[in-house]
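Troubleshooting entry. The earlier prediction with protoporphyrin IX containing FE gave an output that would not parse, so I re-checked the input for stray whitespace and re-submitted. Clean input:
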Amino acid sequence: MSREVYEDMKVGNIAITKGVVVWTFVLALHTDPEIQGNSSYEFNPQKFADGDVKTCKYPQAYMPFGIGPRVCLGEHLATMEFKILIALIVSRFTLSPTYVHSPILRYIIVPQYGVNLCVKKL
Ligand code: HEM
């Protein structure tokens, strides 16, 4: 995520000059054990049971849809679409017995050995 600095400013003890574009590496924020806790690399949907902001040390450090006045306009639509999509997938397939649960970090978190699904004729 990026923001252009419109005037010379300081963030903590870092001086930033007008015109510089500052990038936030969101993946690092979402996986840093210092911020997210020691299980930051584990796939654990349960940690969201009490809402997004309770998942990490600083509520604003969890920002898959950005943050502030330019936050993603489609956040709620996309979240709803994901819920519908997951429900549709789960209702039509079961995981193959050969499936090995092994999420790893590439550019995003992906299943290391893929996800094999059993397809049955409806
Ligand atoms: C998984 C799905 C999506 C993700 C992860 C995502 C993520 C993001 C992020 C990180 C930003 C930048 C926010 C910022 O700079 O603070 C953004 C902006 C935006 N997104 Fe999404 N987005 C998703 C889906 C959608 C959908 C479905 C729509 C529209 C239907 C949408 C519309 C927008 C728009 C219009 C902006 C620009 C907002 C602005 O600059 O004021 N996004 N999105």
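This one parsed fine. Strands lie at 2-4, 9-11, 14-16, 21-23, 93-95, 103-105, 109-111, 117-119.
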